[in-house]
Structure formats: C-alpha cells, structure tokens
C-alpha cells in the first residue's frame, strides 16, 4: 500500500459540498419551527427609556417578544473565556438583551419569535423604543483620556485591562545609535464568512434535553459556556455543528443571540431558528484586529536591533468577547519580537472599552498585528541606516543551531531555520535583478516596490498548563477515539471542528498510513458534543499539531492492542511479530500472517483472546502538547503604484512557508492561498468604519470592500521543511501563516515604491485616496 501522508490528494469533503448536498443550519427544518429576529440599537450609547411592543405583538404570526427586562434573572450574562491574569482585568456584564442601556450600534434590544422569518422581520419595525442618547466614543486612544465618555461607571478611563510583558527602560532605548519611533494601526476588519452566524434550538420537554444546532468553531466550548449562561445542565445540552460555511475566528465566540434561541425554544417548547442577516454581521458579529500601536525600535548603525518597546491601545468593544482579552495581550505581546534576536522587548497593552461591537479572534489573532508592526519598523530602521532590508533581517535572525530558541518575552520556539525561506524567496524573485529593474523603471516614471516580511507564528494552541497560567478558561489538549468495526473499517471521533480546512482528508491520510487500511474505509465524526466526549475546537492553527497528533497516538494504541491479538493468533513470541502496511506477520515466516481486517474481526468477536485483553478494538487518546509549534516564513511582494491615481497593482506575490512536515501539500496550499487573500485584503481594501461617536459607517458590502480573485496575480508558493520536535507528525500549524506574513509584506512593498516621494507610512487599508494624498504630501516636502 502506497504511503498517503505527503500526497496531494483531493479533498474528500468537497463532492458533497460542491454538488449541493451539504447540510447547513438554515437547511434544517423541524416540525413546528418558529423563526426569530433581533431588534438592535441604532445608537452607540443610550438609555432605554421605554419599549412598547404592543403593535408588534398584534401582528398576526408573532408568537412572543422578549426584552432585556423580561429575561432579567432568567438568563445570566455571557462571559469571556480568556481572563488574562495580572492585568487588572475588569469584566463587565453582557446580558443577551440590553437592560437599561445600549452600548453599541447593534446591541440587542428585543428578540422576536414568529411563524416565519418575514413576519419576525416585519415585527421589528413595529416596536417603539424611546432612547435617551448618551455621550459615546469609538477611538480607543481617545477613550483613555480623562474627559472621555465613560461606558461603564465602574471602569475608570474605560480601561478593561493593562497588560505588560517584558521590561525596557528609557536608557535601553536612548543609548542606542538609531531609534525608530512610529505609530501603526491595524484597522478593524469583519470575518465575513460566506455563511453568516446562526442557531436552531430544539427542546424536548419529555426528557428535558436541549439540542442546539449552531455555526461554531468549538461546539464543546459553546456547550460549556451556554450551560453557564442558561443555568442548564451540561450533560443535557447537545451542541451540533452541521456543515459550516467558514468562520475565520468570527464563530469562535459565544454570542447573546445563541443564548436567546436556546432560551426561547425551552420557553415555547418548540424549535426556534435564527439566521443572521448580512448587515447584522457588520453590526453584531465580533470584529478582528483594531489596535493602535506606538513602536520604538532601537539599534546600531551597522544593523543590529537591541531593544523594542511597544504600547498597544487595543479596542475590545463594548464587552469582552470569548477570546477577546487574549488576542492583544498573550497572542500579540509575547510574539512582538518576531523572528529576531532582539535582547530586550516590552509590550504594554491597554484593552479599551468603546461604544463599538466586541473584538475577538480573526485569522492569526494577534500575530499578524505584531508581525505587521515589527516588520514595518524593521523596514524603517533599514531605511534610516541605509541598509538593504534583507541584510537587516539576516543579521538579526537566530541561527538554526540556536533552536529551541527563547525570544525576548520568554517563549520557546520549537525549531527554525529562518534564513532558508528568505533565501528561497530572494532566489525565486531574482532579487538583485528586481532591484536593478526597479531603478530602471523609476527613471521612466514607473514606480514599483519590493516588500519583504519575515515572520514566525505561534500555532498548535497548547499545552493546558500554559493555558491555565495565561487565564484561558479551559484546557487545550485534544482527544480522539479510534473505533475499529468487525469488518476492519474505522470510525474516528475527534474534538477538532472542521469548517473548510480539510480535516477529513488530512486526518484520513494519517489513519490510513498508521493502520495500513484503504483510504475509503475510514470516516470521521466531528462537531457533536453527544458523540465526541470532549474537544477544544478549531482555532490557533491547532487542528493538525494537536488534534492530528491525538488521532495518530490513538492509532498507535489500536496497533498495540491489535499486535497482542495477532501474537496470540499467530502463536508466536511478541518479538517475532511485525506489523507493516496492514499485515501482521512473523518475521521468520512472512506467510504466517493476519490482515488488519482479520484481527479486527477476531478482537470484536472475541472467540479467542489473549489472557487479560478485553474484547473489541477501540482506543482513546487525550493528547496535551508540551509546547506550541512555531511555523515561519518569508513573503516577498512586488507592486506597482500609479502615482497619478494612487492605484496599486500586485505584480508578484511569493510566499515561502515552513510548517514542518506537510500531510497534504494541496490542502496546505489552499490554506496559505486563502490566508494571503485575507491579509492582502486588510492591507489594501477591508475596513469596518465607525465615526468618532461609534456610529457604524460600513454596514454592508456596499461600504466594505472584499478582495476578489482578479485583484491578485498567481500566488507563487514555496515550502521549506523544518520538522517540529513537539509532536510525532513533525508538523506545525499552517492555516494562519499566510495572513501573518502578507499584511506587512504588501504594505512594505507600497512604501518601497513611494520612497522617491519621501513617504514612510500610510494608514491601512492603503486605498487609492490615501496613497494619492500621501504622494501629494511627500511631493510638497
């Protein structure tokens, strides 16, 4: 049997989806099902004076309307699940519907349940709410000022938390020959999955069990948190995630809407469905990024970086989201020194409440932001000392022999060879020739730019002891059960949550190679809290290095037990029996053999078992990794800027990724490609915009630009392979790497193109207008 790990197999998940045979939440229709809509606040901050639902209740087909006052004492607040210690964190109470005060545009005010979604939607317009508007604020730096509007009386200066990692003194900065001081913003973006958020609840009053279908990246976390919010027994709450049309971090969070659906279905004892409208997604789905960062990077004139000090004002929105506090602190702060041997680094993060929707994880979650800030500063440092940015990076990389490498914040990078992907990127681009072409074209009035970003990314979220130390309210291990049926086919249960990553394909490759059975004889059960004992979901590029390793180790346990059965049936000594490609055989007589399928039948029938061995062939593995994994790479981007209009054209995009050993290169390429699109989207086009008071300005795709395929050249993807010592697969996470490197490399390319105009910084996204204005300002100088 040919080895499958490492092969470019097409995804086994896709035929069902591309032929229209997938089942999403909105495809599910239950008998007697009702539909819900949420009335949302049009104001960023206001007191609710009164709510009159009379007209809406009189509308034929309306079944029930709930307000915050109706649910007071019946549903608990929705908590955050990442309470960063040592940060003076103040968590305020987010009730599923606002009680007394709304604090952002989109805050839920009433929940309408009706016989169909059109009636529920019509009823929204018949509810009369009287508001008394209050002072409001959206900018997180302004929110920290003494005279800023206070969003919560108990939170002074709107500071939700203050996190400090490392220590850099003024003298550490000032004593160096060169100091870069710059401010960089990472604007808020919307996850924008094809399928919006949703949930469908079904309560059986006969047995008291509640079933919730929901678009979630972590169904067991949803079950755990909603059990607390609803004060409902966890063992009677089943969360199921059917096929899901994307998440990108936006479906990690547990939202008020899901709690409302669950409560309503129990209260009315009939199924209730809610599906988010697209404009609701911009109002009330957690955004990503939204950091304003001041950077000081100090070093020598000959290119050695010595100290880094960063102050981050992170917008957390009106309430702390599920993972909200962890992204701008742990994920951002501990990775701030990136790929470099910077001896000293300090990050101070102020988590700021504002009158905006909450901010949570978005593809990369803190690492794209830290990489962007650092790589922009590194390029500016190179410019100030008159050195090629390639050489600055080379001088400051740790050598491959220094791994495991401890960064300035104390994280231990598992393995690395950072020079290698840089070399591959430069060779692919023919860098020296490219620089000569750049100089030639400038004389002709054409402005191309070459941008680099070298990155390292924290992935494979774990281990659990670290999770506890950083305030994560859960474990980060993963579990897998491998069940071998009598005929030798296999069902695998795992706690990771696929929604486009290709888990079914890559995991099947692992199992097929381990057990030596046909690819077609393996199936998986995901996303059902009643079938899978426990799992911690999909985020932080953890599915393969943590979930995949749990599967591989469970297979090892199956083989260990099967070997004992085989030794017994072959009537041989244990040392004389080998297992290879699905066959157990005696080493001295290979014809004395049993297939995996024969052993499966023997173990399940249990007619003749070794002494002390239980019937059946099923094993479970709980795997808690000893460390994170740290994928790395270099992106090189070539752009041309039309200086008359500010338009940017991407001419080349080279992405060199090192994620250890690749299980399926085709799947990996798909992940990298999608992540690059999201990173470039942030660099050039995407932005959730609020005015200074918190009024949403980008409430639809008319005002929010999504990247399109025609905006890109063919992405040139290359891979290097540095094995991770953390897991037996030697693999690292990869799904977020493309985003982590692409934002900075794209912006660096544009700034490089505009060097003749003395442009050193432009706020993202780099819209044509912003680029044009920067050119005009630089030309005047």
Describe this protein's structure.
- With 781 residues, the chain is an alpha+beta fold.
- The longest helix has 28 residues, at 543-570.
- It is globular.
- The model has no long low-confidence stretch (mean pLDDT 97).
What topology does this entry show?
Elements: H1 14-18, E1 34-40, E2 46-52, H2 54-58, E3 62-67, H3 68-71, E4 101-102, E5 108-114, H4 117-124, E6 128-133, H5 140-143, E7 159-165, H6 170-174, E8 178-189, E9 198-204, E10 209-214, H7 219-230, E11 237-240, H8 256-268, E12 272-275, H9 278-284, E13 288-299, E14 305-317, H10 327-333, E15 344-353, H11 367-385, H12 389-396, E16 405-406, E17 412-413, H13 419-429, H14 431-443, E18 447-456, H15 464-469, E19 478-484, E20 490-494, H16 503-515, E21 522-525, H17 543-570, E22 577-580, E23 583-586, E24 589-595, H18 596-605, E25 618-623, E26 632-641, E27 648-658, H19 665-684, E28 715-720, H20 737-753, H21 768-780
Parallel strand pairs: 1-12, 10-11, 14-15, 20-21, 27-28
Antiparallel strand pairs: 1-5, 2-4, 2-6, 3-5, 7-15, 8-13, 9-10, 9-12, 13-14, 16-17, 18-26, 19-20, 19-25, 22-23, 23-24, 26-27
Helix pairs in contact: 10-11, 11-20, 13-14, 16-17, 19-20
Total number of strands: 28
Count of separate DSSP helical elements: 21
Distance between the termini: 69 Å
- Oligomer description: single chain
Q: Residue share in helices?
A: 25-40%
Portion in beta strands: 15-25%
Low-confidence stretches: none
Lateral arrangement of strands in the main beta sheet: 3-5-1-12-9-10-11
Radius of gyration, taken over Cα atoms and rounded to an integer in Å: 28 Å
């Amino acid at each position: 049997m040919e080895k499958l790990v490492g092969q470019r197999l097409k995804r086994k998940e896709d035929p069902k989806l591309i032929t229209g045979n997938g089942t999403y939440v909105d495809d599910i229709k239950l008998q007697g099902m009702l539909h819900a809509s949420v009335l949302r606040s049009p104001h960023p901050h206001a007191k609710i004076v009164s709510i009159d639902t009379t007209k809406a209740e009189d509308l034929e087909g309306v079944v029930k309307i709930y307000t915050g006052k109706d649910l007071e004492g019946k549903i608990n607040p929705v908590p955050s699940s990442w309470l960063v210690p040592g940060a003076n964190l103040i968590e305020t109470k987010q009730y599923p519907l606002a009680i007394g005060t709304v604090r952002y545009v989109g805050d839920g005010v009433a929940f309408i349940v009706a016989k169909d979604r059109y009636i529920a939607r019509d009823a929204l317009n018949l509810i009369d709410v009287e508001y008394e508007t209050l002072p409001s604020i959206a900018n997180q730096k302004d929110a920290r000022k003494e005279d800023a509007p206070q969003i919560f009386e108990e939170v002074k200066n709107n500071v939700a938390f203050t996190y400090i990692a490392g220590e850099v003194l003024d003298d550490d900065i000032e004593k160096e020959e060169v100091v870069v001081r710059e401010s960089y913003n990472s604007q808020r973006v919307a996850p924008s999955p094809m399928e919006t958020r949703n949930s469908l609840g079904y309560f059986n009053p006969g047995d008291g069990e509640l079933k919730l279908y929901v678009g979630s990246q972590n169904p067991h976390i949803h079950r755990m948190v909603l059990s607390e919010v609803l004060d409902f027994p966890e063992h009677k709450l089943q969360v199921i995630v059917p096929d899901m049309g994307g998440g990108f971090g936006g479906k990690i969070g547990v939202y008020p809407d899901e709690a409302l659906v669950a409560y309503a279905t129990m209260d009315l004892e009939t199924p209730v469905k809610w599906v988010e409208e697209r404009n609701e997604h911009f109002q009330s789905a957690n955004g990503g990024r939204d950091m304003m960062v001041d950077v000081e990077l100090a070093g020598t004139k000959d290119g050695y970086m010595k100290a880094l000090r960063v102050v981050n004002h992170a917008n957390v929105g009106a309430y702390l989201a599920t993972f909200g506090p962890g992204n701008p602190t742990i994920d951002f702060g501990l990775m701030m020194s990136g790929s470099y041997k910077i001896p000293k680094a300090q990050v101070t993060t102020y988590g700021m409440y504002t009158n905006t929707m909450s901010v949570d994880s978005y593809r990369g979650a803190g690492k794209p932001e830290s990489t962007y800030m650092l790589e922009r500063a590194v390029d500016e440092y190179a410019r100030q000392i008159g050195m090629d940015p390639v050489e600055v990076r080379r001088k400051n990389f740790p050598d491959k022999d220094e791994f495991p490498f401890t960064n300035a914040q104390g994280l231990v990078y598992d393995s690395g060879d950072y020079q290698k992907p840089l070399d591959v990127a430069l060779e692919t681009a023919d860098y020296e020739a490219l620089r000569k072409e750049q100089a030639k074209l400038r004389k002709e009035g054409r402005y191309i730019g070459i941008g680099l970003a070298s990155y390292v990314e924290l992935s494979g979220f774990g281990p659990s002891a670290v999770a506890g130390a950083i305030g994560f309210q859960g474990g980060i291990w993963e579990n897998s059960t491998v069940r071998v049926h009598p005929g030798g086919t296999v069902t695998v249960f795992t706690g990771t949550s696929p929604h486009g990553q290709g888990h079914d394909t890559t995991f099947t490759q692992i199992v097929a190679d381990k057990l030596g059975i046909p690819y077609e004889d393996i199936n998986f059960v995901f996303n059902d809290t009643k079938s899978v004992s426990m799992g911690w979901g999909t985020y932080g590029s953890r599915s393969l290095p943590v979930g995949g390793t749990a599967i591989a180790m469970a297979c090892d346990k199956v083989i260990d037990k099967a070997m004992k059965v085989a030794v017994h049936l072959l009537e041989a000594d244990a040392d004389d029996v080998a297992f290879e490609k699905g066959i157990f055989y005696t080493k001295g007589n290979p014809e004395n053999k049993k297939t995996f399928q024969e052993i499966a039948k023997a173990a399940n029938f249990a007619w003749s078992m070794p002494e002390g061995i239980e019937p059946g062939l099923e094993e479970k593995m709980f795997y808690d990794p000893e460390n994170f994994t740290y994928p790395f790479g270099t992106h090189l981007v070539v752009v041309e800027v039309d200086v008359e209009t500010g338009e940017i054209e991407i001419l080349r995009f080279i992405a060199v990724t090192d994620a250890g050993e690749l299980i399926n290169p085709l799947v990996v390429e798909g992940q990298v490609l999608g992540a690059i699109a999201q990173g470039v989207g942030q660099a050039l086009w995407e932005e959730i915009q609020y005015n200074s008071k918190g009024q949403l300005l980008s409430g639809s795709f008319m005002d929010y630009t999504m990247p399109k395929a025609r905006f890109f050249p063919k992405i040139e993807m290359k891979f290097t392979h540095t094995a991770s010592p953390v897991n037996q697969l030697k693999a690292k996470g990869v799904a977020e790497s493309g985003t982590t490197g692409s934002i900075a490399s794209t912006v660096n390319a544009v700034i490089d193109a505009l060097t003749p105009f003395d442009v050193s910084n432009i706020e993202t996204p780099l819209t044509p207008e912003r680029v044009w204005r920067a050119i005009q300002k630089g030309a005047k100088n």
